[in-house]
Amino acid sequence: MIVMQGSSAHELYRDALRYVLEEGETVDVRGYRTKEVLDFATVITQPWHHCHFVPGRRWNPWIAMSEALWILAGRNDFQALLPYNKRIAEFSDDGSTLYGAYGRRIMPQMKFLIERLIKDQSDRRGVIAIWQWPDLMEETKDPPCNDMIMFKIRDDKLHMTVINRSNDLHWGLYAVNIPTFGILQDWLAARLGVEMGTQTHLSNSLHVYRPQLGMKPNWDITRNMTAEGFEPLPMMPKHERAFTEPVATDALVEACNAALSADADDYDGPIPFLMFANDFLRGYRLGRFDLDNDCRYASYFQDWIMAAQVWEGAP
Active site includes 145? Predict the structure, then answer.
């Protein structure tokens, strides 16, 4: 087991890439050549940092934000994600839904998880199962990669461990897994009235793709990040936690659906992060990027604003 620990994805990303490139084994999977490390643990000690700003990495914060809200809303339709991720439809088997949608699998279990952890904060059975046995037999374009989430409260802090069977370093772990599951942990900690503990991702296969004919284009990310070397990272801007007050599940689902829908009324409180997310996603849909002025509570969430500015300013 390889363990890499740091305060945030922002701090760890480059070190993880370098480790996979230097220590990984070459493995061909479905016609693609990869560099792979088995059983890699990414441990984040300050998981309220949901964004990263790594030189050479053009990270799209709207994809991460929309997927986080889509998961919390318990949805499985890809139309809600399409304005932010034009390729998402390629992973649908039926032209309307995603087979492995995390929210549809996670949120029905959440009521029972919350009840268990409220009843006994020392409980060791706070487990959400994402992978289910029929998935072994299903021929699908979208098998779930994240398969289990385990929660434990220790010293009034909620610790979260996500187990993943197949983790693309660029498009999986650092693009969406860390921010989206981090926001889930953020909400759940507030809902339970405790602080956030560690966020751990156990990647059974952590990998990057190697360049070859017909290759997936994410080799460009590896090339661009390595070309930047190890210059000092940009400073992480000050920001608030996404959730500082408890939000009931029904209210959360309603707010997330409002933020994702072009037709729904704006979410109008009382949670600042959900108001900000509503405006942040709407600005992207409308092509307006004066986010400091267009987003309510923009001063609270300058990490997301900075990520958007980096995205817009990147070549």
Answer: yes
